[in-house]
Amino acid sequence: MSNLDLLNIDLKYLQFNIKKFTSQGYTYYRIQKQLDKNNKISVIGKTKDIAKQKYFIKLEQYLNEDFNSLDLKNMLFIDFVKYYLFDVVLPSGSIKQKTFSGYEVFYRIHLKNSLLSNIKLKDLKKEHLQKYFNNICKTNLKMSTIKQLKTFISIVLNYAVEEDYILKNYCKSIKLPKDNTIKKDKYLTDEEIKTILKNCKDEQLLLIIKIALSTGMRINEILALTENDFDFENLSINITKTISCSKQFHDEKIYKNENIITIPKSKSSIRKVYFNDKICNDIKKYILSEKERYLKSGKKYNSNIFIFTNKYFKPYNFYSCDVKINNLFKACNIDASGFHIFRHTSGSKLYEMGVNIKTISEQLGHSNTSITSNIYVHLDEKIKKDALKNLDFYFEDVK
Fold this sequence. Notes:
By secondary structure, the chain is of the alpha+beta class. 44% of the residues lie in helices and 12% in strands. It is built from 14 helices and 8 strands. It has helices at 48-63, 77-92, 97-111, 126-136, 143-162, 190-199, 203-215, 219-222, 280-296, 318-331, 340-352, 357-364, 369-376, 379-388; strands at residues 18-23, 26-34, 40-45, 230-231, 236-239, 242-249, 255-262, 271-274. The strands form 3 sheets. A 3-stranded antiparallel sheet has the order 1-2-3, with helices on one face. The protein has a 3-stranded antiparallel sheet with strand order 4-5-8. The protein has a two-stranded antiparallel sheet with strand order 6-7. Helix 2 (77-92) runs antiparallel to helix 3 (97-111) and helix 11 runs antiparallel to helix 12.
């Protein structure tokens, strides 16, 4: 509700008309009021009272000099996306910078010069959006990315609806084709793991891989590890933070890349995981070598700094790690990509060994066991087939 003192307000602001109109089979009420030469209020409500409430909220913003008047008659959809990102979301700090950085990529790469660029916000309809998504689905863009893009556009249009700039968010009713791509098994075989470990000559990367296979940790959780996170007596790791590199925006043109340390993605991701005793000495040996490296460089080491750093003692970069991993896969002639496959492999091996879903879910930090089940349910068929092979001896002498 507005905090305006209606008894002491200038009467010219209380003189307005409420007009009733129908759109898409629904009845709405609109108030339009020219406040001065440059500022105008236009609000819509499903009832007269809602329209009045919205009007007084906007009026209060105007009187407090916190009112943004947009040229909605001529504003293009793409300009509204830019306005939403850099004039609404960024100053508010309402989302993480990493999330904002992802939204900026959607705006700059996928929307700025698209079919939607020259359509006015007020004229944007379902057919425009459907045509846009029909075309983008024909590209090499992953369906998961397309779905995220659809979610982003829907968020922008939801804001436009809430602020009475448009009547309806047509993105909600957009239909995307089913993802019929055949998903490959997202885990490595025992032979592939042996080949990778044998051919990885980068000792730092090798240890990162071993930790991922042993614990199922995410790469950004591993890169955020410090010596204090390890409990060598109990062969466990306390996961309380994650590190990522993303653009930190001041405005559309001014930004810088920074390492951001945050808590893990969900409460369940804050957890204790256990690692194989065979890599315990590898971890201790690596940390000792890092201490010696700091000493030789005249830098002070403490147990709270990241153990995985580059030659300049800066945090190890996720992207350079992924490049090295993909080069390693190529050198080993393994059809795989990305670091995440080690996490899936770890979970798959636990599942194949008969470890219960709840334990696997806790080790991986999933928010619920259904996520774990959905990821590894495809292994049930493999387990059944392998089990049936044990019956082959019955038929050895049968012709």
